[in-house]
Design a protein that fits this description.
This is Putative hydrolase of the HAD superfamily. Keywords: Hydrolase, Magnesium. One of its GO terms (biological process) is small molecule metabolic process. One of its GO terms (molecular function) is hydrolase activity. It contains ten helices and seven strands. It has about 250 residues and is of the alpha/beta class. The protein folds into two domains: about 140 residues, Rossmann fold; about 80 residues, no CATH class. The radius of gyration is 19 Å and the shape is elongated. Bound molecules: magnesium ion. Magnesium ion binds next to loops.
């Protein structure tokens, strides 16, 4: 564990005034919970790669407004079982999904590094927000279930603002909610393009949380951390300067 550096309780690191974070697989160990749901559904998580692939496909259709969340869940479940040769109708898919969803929700939990990082940021005087691609009610329930309902100064959910990451408008919505310029705000997330590069294109400091440790240092101009324990040091140290992108900062 990287210990948080000493800090004043009233001085924010550098010029940075707020940090936005993604929720799923950034603060919450969503994959662990989702694997638990899959085990409840089929008795094992050996089919996790198929479930993950199917989820990526159907969740993208939800994010792109091609399916609402409930329809996405039903279609995903039908496609998952069809991949193993079992055809089920909408009613049976919805029933199985409710079983999986209940098991997954009971397993929702934060990564061990999430709370210490949020506490350090808060104690440093940095404001906090989340920016997440998800339906409103579902995601607010999830945030509350892990004890974070009162932690953030702004909660920006794609299902509420009508645009999703990596669209620059959702990042600017967060900056507006915080009353800050994009270059005063960092965004941290587990998806390189959706989170880190999307934020950078909107003029924020994009940071990629690569928990699988496939990369270290930087990818292009994007700083990479492998744990939220590394975030304080990065913010206090040497975040790269934001390049001028006036066409995106409107
Ligand atoms: Mg994520």
């Amino acid at each position: 564990m990287t210990s948080a550096p000493n800090h004043s309780t009233t001085h924010a690191p550098g010029q940075l005034k707020a940090v936005c974070l993604d929720v799923d697989d950034t603060l919450l160990d969503t994959q662990r919970a989702s694997r638990q749901g899959l085990r409840e559904l089929v008795g094992t998580d050996r089919a996790w790669p198929v479930w993950e692939r199917t989820t990526d496909h159907y969740y993208a259709r939800f994010v792109n407004d091609e399916l609402d969340f409930e329809a996405m869940c039903v279609e995903r479940t039908k496609a998952f079982f069809a991949a193993f040769g079992e055809q089920i109708d909408d009613t049976e898919a919805a029933r199985r999904e409710s079983v999986r969803m209940a098991a997954m929700q009971s397993a929702w939990g934060l990564f061990d590094d999430a709370r210490p990082c949020l506490d350090w940021l808060r104690d440093s005087g940095v404001r906090l927000a989340v920016i997440t691609n998800a339906p409103s009610t579902y995601q607010r329930k999830k945030i509350a279930a892990v004890g974070l309902a009162d932690v953030f100064d702004a909660v920006v959910i794609s299902g509420e603002v009508g645009v999703a990451k990596p669209d620059p408008r959702i990042f600017r919505t967060a900056c507006d909610a915080l009353g800050l310029r994009p270059d005063e705000v960092a965004h941290v997330g587990d998806r390189l393009d959706t989170d880190a590069r999307g934020a950078a294109r909107a003029g924020l400091h994009g940071v990629w949380l690569d928990r699988s440790r496939s990369e270290r240092g930087t990818v292009g101009d994007v700083p990479v951390i492998t744990s939220l324990h590394e975030l304080p040091e990065l913010l206090v140290g040497d975040l790269p300067a934001i390049p001028a992108m006036p066409e995106l900062i409107g």
